[in-house]
Amino acid sequence: MAEAKKRTALDIIRSYDGPKIRIMEVCGTHTHEIFRQGIRQILPPQVDVISGPGCPVCVTPVGYIDQAIWLALEKGVTICTFGDLVRVPGSTMSLADARSQGGHVEIVYSPLDAYDYAKAHPDEDVVFLSVGFETTTPPSCLAVKQAVADGMTNFSLLTANKTMPMAYEAMKDSADAFLYPGHVDAVMGTRSGEAMLKEGVSGVVAGFTAKELLTAFAVILVKFPQGKPFFKNCYPRVVKAEGSPAAQALIKEVMEPCDSEWRGLGVIPQSGLQLRPAFAVCDARKKYGVPAMEGRANPACRCGDILQGKCTPPQCPLFGKVCTPEHPVGACMVSHEGACSAYYLYGGNLHE
Ligand code: SF4
């Protein structure tokens, strides 16, 4: 008798006839790869994929942009930043607008580029806009350590670094299962997903190739109908249970947990990172007395709801009309990791 043909991940997904399920992906790269590789198009109608707060630029609040603009225009510092942040609207203007008003804004590709810029320009006060999750925090820590070791006094960070575990906690009732971000877990290991499992929250760690994403979806769709919470690392070639101890030690040495404001989610206790007192010389907030700024987003922009999975970009009245990648109204349309830019680029959710 011929051996029964093994079902592939694609077979499992296509033939899914289980209950309706909401899967939240919490990584800007996943948002785009799931679209780009056509995975949304093959999901059955009862499988809903929603975007969570996984795009670092998108979750950075408006008040932070206002603080960066204040530093550029009122304190005359040179702002070094990733390109995406330059176009994110603040309360009254973006950093691009501040630059056109005489603010000095330099685009860099890493915190160490900003450090190099500061070292090459000792007559300028340089502030790097340090945003992002556990993946982008270690290079910021490295740049600060290097600056302190060199005795530099013209380099500092405006920190808005965030960590994922408390965000998962805040979002745990928003989905039936999480697609955990592979590169965050490559640094931090699998303990946050395992901790969520103990609370009855399901999820899998996913990689980024088509095969890895299909496997992650297939595992969810096999396990979900069984009715028991589950956790599985579907990215074992990169994610180890312990993560990267060296990167974790670096973060711990230079930064400490703090409360942090997330766009759309408000302040989540202990979900951010700030420089430890030993590195205060590189803390732009202390160095320049940066005031707290509340920030006002365009009231019609629904980025906050999108980041909580409460609506999809096409449900925003401005999507594709007033708000486009060329003329973004909110952060989710600016960043190449944002959900609005993904929907705009790849054509929207086919199930809507
Ligand atoms: S489409 Fe534009 S205005 Fe609407 S939520 Fe997205 S970024 Fe905000």
UniProtKB/TrEMBL annotation:
Record-linked InterPro entries: Hyd_form_HypD (IPR002780), HypD_1 (IPR042243), HypD_2_sf (IPR042244)
Matching Pfam families: HypD
Highest taxon listed in the record's lineage: Bacteria
Keyword Metal-binding recorded: yes
Signal peptide per UniProt: none
UniProt KW keywords: Iron, Metal-binding
Coiled coil segments of this chain: none
NCBIfam families, per the entry: hypD
Family, similarity comment: Belongs to the HypD family.
Name of this chain's protein: Hydrogenase formation protein HypD
Organism this protein belongs to: Megasphaera intestinihominis
Gene: hypD
